[in-house]
């Protein structure tokens, strides 16, 4: 999983490598500060030597400034690298989804894909930033502080070795408790997104049936489920801080007690025992050691949270589209002839229930054919096999005398225009929506297509005409207007095959007749 994600660092390798270098330099400076303070106290303040005080004071100031400099540099490079990494992951997922077939999208659901592109990527981005900083800083502080404390006094340093297993076991126990909760939460996020998306998309229906209370309760239940899970996880992880404080203050008390006895016994003589400055440095190191352990515990918590997100991201990246171009694809569609030969179709490969069973159908170019059947009789499924939105389970669908699986997918779909049952317009002007059919279409071509689709007159009734802005989903035009714009968009492709899937259901019979006559 890590190998698959790490390649998305891409052009941000330099800041990714620089971040841990700056972090290590910052850690070295932090470890030096207590040693310099000990020297300042023992060789300067206790003796009353102003020259030594000035010397070590300058060293301390330089170390503090360098710590701040390296810390700031690490923060900047980490932010740059993590944001870039997230951008690449999100782009990689988005491009992958563009290649998905309808069956791939059905497998994940739209709400789940939205969650993976947003919440999951944000979680992984946060952990990536932590890994380039805290994952290097915490172990570095831990190791350097242990080495420095043993160089000061190895007897007192044994106190750290006794407290570390206690904290480590406690953190391990907490992580094991919260990991299943976080895995469950992200699945619930999918449901939450689905409810929100469904509610906003169908807001007019909700209000017309006066079902606001029902939708509110549905949202509250799922939102409450996420709240309960997160609360439970947070309550469990809340034990981490008291445990860390217990270990830290316990170490400090033991060090102070043993250190004071050593100072008294040695008469504040470094050669005979311990000095006041060294005791101060040991107390500082105890805080640094235990804080580094706490940071390591935080890393594990965030890694636990992001593990589920990373798995969901990789699941999308690993998903292979059901539709592939052949090795040497055909790029020219000879004609609009359509042939279904013993076609069987199922939505799932492992399903025994056939949606289409042994279909044989032959349509010549220039024919106008109506496909009739009751609701749910697979009319849409039948026509969606022609532009290869799905692949057949067995048999073959041929266009221009060649199996659709032999064509380059883009070339095939360029010659097939389809107006789906669910008409979709995108936010932008009417012109921009029409140019989905042909991005290079002239204004004359657009007007001609709209006249054929009986859309020109109502477009000209708008104040801005063809520059009228369409809201998301076409919410500011009627259903019939939306259908006519979609027909005009399809006509601009000048396809060899035009499929109209119940595309005039929202227009009146007179307009329907006019459109058919114009076609």
Explained architecture:
By secondary structure, the chain is of the alpha+beta class. It is built from 17 helices and eight strands. The strands form three sheets. The chain has a four-stranded antiparallel β-sheet with strand order 2-1-3-4, with no helix packed on it. It has a two-stranded parallel sheet with strand order 5-8. A two-stranded antiparallel sheet has the order 6-7. Helix 6 runs parallel beside helix 10. It starts with a helix and ends with a helix. The mean pLDDT is about 85.
| Low-confidence blocks of residues | none
Instruction: Please state the overall shape, judged from the principal axes of the Cα atoms.
Output: elongated
Question: Can you count the helices?
Answer: 17
Q: Profile the largest sheet.
A: 4 strands, antiparallel
First and last CA, distance: 53 Å
**Structural class of the secondary structure composition?**
alpha+beta
Tell how many strands the DSSP assignment holds.
Answer: 8
Percent range for β-strand residues: 5-15%
Strand arrangement across the biggest beta sheet:
2-1-3-4
Average predicted confidence as pLDDT: 84
Q: Give, in order, the helices and strands.
A: HHHHHHHHHHEEHEEHEEHHHEHEH
């Amino acid at each position: 999983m890590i190998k698959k994600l790490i390649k998305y660092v891409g052009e941000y390798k330099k800041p990714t490598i620089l971040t841990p270098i700056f972090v290590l330099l910052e850690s070295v400076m932090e470890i030096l500060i207590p040693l310099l303070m000990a020297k300042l106290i023992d060789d300067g303040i206790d003796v009353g030597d102003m020259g030594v005080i000035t010397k070590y004071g300058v060293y301390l100031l330089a170390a503090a400034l360098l710590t701040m400099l390296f810390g700031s540099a690490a923060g900047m490079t980490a932010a740059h690298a993590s944001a870039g990494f997230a951008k690449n992951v999100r782009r990689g997922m988005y491009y992958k989804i563009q290649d998905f077939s309808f069956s791939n999208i059905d497998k994940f659901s739209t709400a789940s894909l939205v969650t993976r592109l947003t919440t999951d990527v944000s979680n992984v981005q946060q952990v990536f930033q932590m890994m380039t900083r805290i994952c290097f800083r915490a172990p570095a502080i831990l190791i350097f502080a242990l080495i420095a404390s043993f160089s000061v006094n190895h007897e007192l340093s044994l106190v750290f070795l006794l407290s570390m297993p206690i904290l480590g076991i406690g953190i391990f126990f907490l992580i094991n408790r919260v990991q299943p909760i976080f895995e469950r939460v992200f699945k619930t996020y999918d449901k939450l997104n689905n409810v929100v998306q469904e509610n906003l998309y169908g807001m007019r229906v909700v209000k017309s049936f006066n079902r606001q209370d029902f939708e509110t309760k549905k949202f509250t239940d799922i939102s409450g489920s996420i709240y309960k899970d997160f609360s439970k996880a947070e309550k469990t992880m809340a034990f981490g801080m008291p445990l860390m404080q217990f270990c830290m203050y316990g170490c400090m008390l033991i060090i102070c007690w043993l250190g004071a006895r050593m100072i008294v016994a040695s008469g504040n003589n470094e050669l005979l025992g311990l000095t006041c400055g060294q005791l101060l440095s040991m107390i500082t190191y105890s805080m640094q050691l235990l804080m580094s352990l706490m940071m390591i515990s935080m890393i594990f918590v965030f890694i636990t949270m992001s593990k589920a997100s990373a798995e969901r991201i990789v699941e999308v990246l690993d998903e292979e589209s059901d539709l592939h171009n052949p090795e040497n694809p055909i790029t020219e569609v000879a004609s609009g002839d359509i042939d279904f030969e013993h076609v069987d179709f199922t939505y799932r490969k492992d399903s025994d229930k056939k949606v289409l069973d042994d279909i044989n159908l032959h349509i010549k170019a220039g024919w106008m054919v109506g496909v009739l059947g009751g609701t749910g009789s697979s009319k849409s499924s039948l026509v969606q096999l022609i532009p290869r939105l799905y692949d057949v389970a067995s048999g073959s669908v041929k266009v221009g005398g060649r199996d659709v699986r032999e064509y380059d997918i883009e070339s095939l779909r360029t010659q097939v225009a389809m107006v789906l049952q669910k008409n979709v317009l995108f936010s932008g002007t009417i012109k921009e929506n029409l140019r989905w059919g042909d991005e290079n279409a002239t204004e004359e071509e657009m007007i001609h297509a709209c006249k054929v689709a009986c859309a020109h007159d109502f477009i000209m009734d708008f104040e801005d005409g063809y520059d009228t802005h369409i809201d998301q989903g076409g919410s500011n035009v009627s259903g019939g207007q939306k259908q006519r714009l979609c027909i005009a968009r399809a006509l601009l492709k000048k396809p060899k095959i035009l499929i109209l899937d119940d595309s005039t259901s929202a227009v009146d019979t007179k307009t329907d007749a006019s459109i058919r006559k114009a076609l």
